Amino acid sequence: MKKKVSERLMTSKQQITQMQHYWDNLFHLTPDKDKKKNLERRFGIKNIKVDNRGNILSFEEVELDELDIGAKICDVPVSSLRSPLLKKLHKKKCDPEKEKDTVLHRAAKKAKMGRKERDRLYNSFEQFLEAKQKTVVFSFGRLNPPTTGHQKLLQKIIQVAKQQSGQPKLFVSYSQDVKKNPLTAKQKIAYIKKMFPKEARQIEMKDDSSIKNAMDIATVLNGKYDNLVMVVGSDRVRDFKTLLNKYNGVES
């Protein structure tokens, strides 16, 4: 099958620019290896090289023979796959004549599902293939102003997130007054990005005005993640552990 004219005429520089756009849209995924896996799966590329500022330098195209998601993809009708790469894999690995005769299709038929119900079933299976993150590692603080000591906090969040295969987040307090808290939340985040670009690039930073304390953060994250891991100083571990465990599972 021939490529579209726009794809065939696209230069290497244009391809990198296009891929950079997708990379930037994955700011919620950290560390960089998760972004790379996402792009590799979606677009069939490998060996993505990125500089310390998050700019893609180069990548290579992957032959379908190098990819292996397993036979599970054959249990999904190709019409329900949104990812172009998954569609290519389906075409290569699965017999089109047997597409309708799949485990999921038989289950949907037996349950007498309508088209919308079947679509939801197929989409949920594709989400299973994508293996979304279910763990978040976060911290909360005034950081007014940010100091070199806060760099260690950022590094610890990243370290724990890697160990837990979770998503690192930093929630910045909205508290502000002329004497003790001169900077706004947005200003603090801007300074953090300038002072610690390497760490800031790996952490999603939030300045939600509705968040006043750790319990507010737990409420916001509830339902989005299976596991919440909070990073705090050793002198506060006991207090926060008692507080969060006390209200774990309690309706807000």
Q: Looking at the structure, what is the overall shape?
A: globular
Q: What's the count of strands?
A: 6
The computed structural class is alpha/beta
Mean pLDDT: 75
CATH structural architecture of the largest domain: 3-Layer(aba) Sandwich
Determine and state the CATH class of the largest domain: Alpha Beta
Low-confidence stretches: 1-10, 64-70
InterPro entries: Cyt_trans-like, Rossmann-like_a/b/a_fold
Domain Cytidyltransferase-like: 140-240
GO molecular function: catalytic activity
Protein name: Cytidyltransferase-like domain-containing protein
Structure write-up:
The protein is an alpha/beta fold and 252 residues long. The chain has three domains: 58 residues, no CATH class; 65 residues, no CATH class; 113 residues, HUPs (Rossmann fold), CATH 3.40.50.620. Helix content is 45%, strand content 13%. Strands 5-4-3-6 form a four-stranded parallel beta sheet. A hairpin with a 5-residue loop joins strand 1 and strand 2. The chain is globular, with a radius of gyration of 23 Å. The N terminus is likely disordered.
